[in-house]
């Protein structure tokens, strides 16, 4: 007997990807329900070879639902996750609403699946920010081997990280440039077509942006509070996949060959690292894929025990939908969740 799963935000970038991934991975669901706002009542979304008609979140009853995969933004999650969780339906949330709550595990299954043990305190599990998810998948095996002291990361984040409106804006602006139309910016603070923007999310008092702060705080919570991390997050005119230039300083000596061999064996990682023209991954190639790709691994001689690499992953998959489904799978594999139907 399988689980009943609700996808909340099913018409969005992440929600649609969740439905695809549930079907692709043959998630043990007896029933999948698609939910969104009142704007989308009756909108059709695909789940494998089935078509689901979206229902309205506000009028939906979660009493017989086992898992809610939430990707409807922070405000909706703040209001709805506790209500859904109170109906004994475990919430796996993609927004930042619950990530820093000490009673809510923040989980990337390849890195800290053990943290799931505490999920019943609130019945909510948080998915990290997209740029953090791929980064910690790469850092975890290196931290285990060489002990990370400090990380410097610059991100090149795609417009799909800002939802479907972000993708529409890049498309509309690119078209407008080609037909010499007026370029309008609504979603992003400046023009994104043929440009890039060194601001993601709002500014904090210390001059960092909230996206940069999230990478620091979430890496500490998921991997190790002792790791120092500084980030510069940049939006680039790419539709899907986030890229990161990463410099790491370790306690122990490290060579590029050792790091490459460790990363080759690491769960969720694929190394593409030929020191020749084209011998690396680009965001276009990573789109639609599950792996966190690592390229350009090299020693950084400007610090003691330094390493530099390039990290790319599909932000809608490992950065959001895939990670959420993997969390649900981990709950099942660890026997932390039984279908309500079976328990009845
Ligand atoms: N995109 C990424 O790379 C990424 C990565 C990690 C986390 N996230 C997080 O995932 C969430 C969704 O992101 P997205 O990229 O999928 O955004 P999106 O494409 O803009 O989709 C938003 C979804 O939320 C639904 N929604 C909005 N208001 C609602 C309401 N009041 N009640 C019910 N549903 C409502 C929308 O439904 P309607 O179509 O009916 O409006 C839509 O299905 C956000 O919290 C985001 O921060 C995104």
From TrEMBL:
<comment type="similarity">
    <text>Belongs to the aspartate-semialdehyde dehydrogenase family.</text>
</comment>
<dbReference type="InterPro" id="IPR036291">
    <property type="entry name" value="NAD(P)-bd_dom_sf"/>
</dbReference>
<feature type="active site" description="Proton acceptor">
    <location>
        <position position="242"/>
    </location>
</feature>
<dbReference type="GO" id="GO:0046983">
    <property type="term" value="F:protein dimerization activity"/>
</dbReference>
<dbReference type="GO" id="GO:0009089">
    <property type="term" value="P:lysine biosynthetic process via diaminopimelate"/>
</dbReference>
<keyword id="KW-0457">Lysine biosynthesis</keyword>
<keyword id="KW-0521">NADP</keyword>
<feature type="binding site">
    <location>
        <begin position="39"/>
        <end position="40"/>
    </location>
    <ligand>
        <name>NADP(+)</name>
    </ligand>
</feature>
<comment type="pathway">
    <text>Amino-acid biosynthesis; L-threonine biosynthesis; L-threonine from L-aspartate: step 2/5.</text>
</comment>
<dbReference type="InterPro" id="IPR000534">
    <property type="entry name" value="Semialdehyde_DH_NAD-bd"/>
</dbReference>
<dbReference type="GO" id="GO:0050661">
    <property type="term" value="F:NADP binding"/>
</dbReference>
<dbReference type="InterPro" id="IPR005986">
    <property type="entry name" value="Asp_semialdehyde_DH_beta"/>
</dbReference>
<comment type="subunit">
    <text>Homodimer.</text>
</comment>
<keyword id="KW-0560">Oxidoreductase</keyword>
<feature type="binding site">
    <location>
        <position position="235"/>
    </location>
    <ligand>
        <name>substrate</name>
    </ligand>
</feature>
<dbReference type="InterPro" id="IPR012280">
    <property type="entry name" value="Semialdhyde_DH_dimer_dom"/>
</dbReference>
<dbReference type="InterPro" id="IPR012080">
    <property type="entry name" value="Asp_semialdehyde_DH"/>
</dbReference>
<feature type="domain" description="Semialdehyde dehydrogenase NAD-binding">
    <location>
        <begin position="4"/>
        <end position="119"/>
    </location>
</feature>
<keyword id="KW-0486">Methionine biosynthesis</keyword>
<keyword id="KW-0220">Diaminopimelate biosynthesis</keyword>
<dbReference type="GO" id="GO:0009097">
    <property type="term" value="P:isoleucine biosynthetic process"/>
</dbReference>
<feature type="binding site">
    <location>
        <begin position="160"/>
        <end position="161"/>
    </location>
    <ligand>
        <name>NADP(+)</name>
    </ligand>
</feature>
<feature type="binding site">
    <location>
        <position position="315"/>
    </location>
    <ligand>
        <name>NADP(+)</name>
    </ligand>
</feature>
<keyword id="KW-0028">Amino-acid biosynthesis</keyword>
<feature type="binding site">
    <location>
        <begin position="11"/>
        <end position="14"/>
    </location>
    <ligand>
        <name>NADP(+)</name>
    </ligand>
</feature>
<dbReference type="GO" id="GO:0019877">
    <property type="term" value="P:diaminopimelate biosynthetic process"/>
</dbReference>
<feature type="binding site">
    <location>
        <position position="99"/>
    </location>
    <ligand>
        <name>phosphate</name>
    </ligand>
</feature>
<dbReference type="GO" id="GO:0051287">
    <property type="term" value="F:NAD binding"/>
</dbReference>
<feature type="active site" description="Acyl-thioester intermediate">
    <location>
        <position position="130"/>
    </location>
</feature>
<protein>
    <recommendedName>
        <fullName>Aspartate-semialdehyde dehydrogenase</fullName>
        <ecNumber>1.2.1.11</ecNumber>
    </recommendedName>
</protein>
<dbReference type="GO" id="GO:0009088">
    <property type="term" value="P:threonine biosynthetic process"/>
</dbReference>
<dbReference type="GO" id="GO:0004073">
    <property type="term" value="F:aspartate-semialdehyde dehydrogenase activity"/>
</dbReference>
<comment type="function">
    <text>Catalyzes the NADPH-dependent formation of L-aspartate-semialdehyde (L-ASA) by the reductive dephosphorylation of L-aspartyl-4-phosphate.</text>
</comment>
<comment type="pathway">
    <text>Amino-acid biosynthesis; L-methionine biosynthesis via de novo pathway; L-homoserine from L-aspartate: step 2/3.</text>
</comment>
<dbReference type="GO" id="GO:0071266">
    <property type="term" value="P:'de novo' L-methionine biosynthetic process"/>
</dbReference>
<dbReference type="Pfam" id="PF01118">
    <property type="entry name" value="Semialdhyde_dh"/>
</dbReference>
<feature type="binding site">
    <location>
        <position position="157"/>
    </location>
    <ligand>
        <name>substrate</name>
    </ligand>
</feature>
<keyword id="KW-0791">Threonine biosynthesis</keyword>
<dbReference type="Pfam" id="PF02774">
    <property type="entry name" value="Semialdhyde_dhC"/>
</dbReference>
């Amino acid at each position: 007997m399988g689980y009943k799963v609700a996808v909340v935000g099913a018409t969005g970038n992440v929600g649609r990807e969740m439905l695809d991934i549930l079907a692709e991975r043959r998630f043990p669901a007896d029933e999948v329900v698609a939910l969104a706002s009142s704007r989308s009542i009756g909108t059709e979304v695909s789940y494998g070879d089935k078509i689901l008609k979206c229902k309205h979140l506000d009028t939906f009853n979660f009493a017989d639902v086992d898992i809610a995969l939430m990707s409807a933004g922070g405000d909706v999650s703040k209001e709805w996750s506790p209500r859904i969780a109170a109906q004994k339906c475990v919430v796996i949330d993609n927004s930042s609403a619950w990530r820093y709550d000490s009673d809510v595990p923040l989980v990337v299954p390849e890195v800290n699946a053990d943290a799931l043990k505490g999920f019943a305190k609130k019945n909510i599990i948080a998915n990290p920010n997209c740029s953090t998810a791929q980064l910690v998948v790469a850092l975890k095996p290196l931290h285990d081997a060489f002990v990370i002291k400090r990380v410097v990361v610059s991100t090149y984040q795609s417009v799909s990280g800002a939802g479907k409106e972000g993708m529409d804006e890049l498309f509309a602006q690119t078209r407008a440039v080609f037909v010499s139309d007026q370029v309008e910016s609504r979603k992003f603070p400046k023009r994104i077509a043929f440009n890039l923007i060194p601001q993601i999310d709002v500014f904090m008092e210390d001059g960092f942006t909230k996206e940069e702060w999230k990478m620091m705080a979430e890496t500490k919570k998921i991997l190790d509070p002792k790791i120092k991390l500084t980030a510069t997050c940049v939006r680039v005119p790419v539709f899907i996949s986030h890229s990161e230039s990463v410099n790491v300083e370790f306690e122990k000596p490290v060579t590029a060959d050792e790091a490459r061999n460790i990363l080759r064996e690491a769960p969720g990682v694929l190394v593409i690292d030929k020191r020749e023209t084209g011998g690396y991954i680009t965001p276009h190639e990573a789109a639609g894929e599950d792996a966190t790709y690592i390229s350009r691994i090299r020693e950084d001689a400007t610090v003691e025990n330094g390493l530099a690499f390039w990290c790319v992953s599909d932000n809608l998959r490992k950065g959001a939908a895939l990670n959420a489904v993997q969390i649900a799978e981990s709950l099942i594999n660890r026997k932390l969740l039984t279908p309500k139907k079976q328990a009845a």
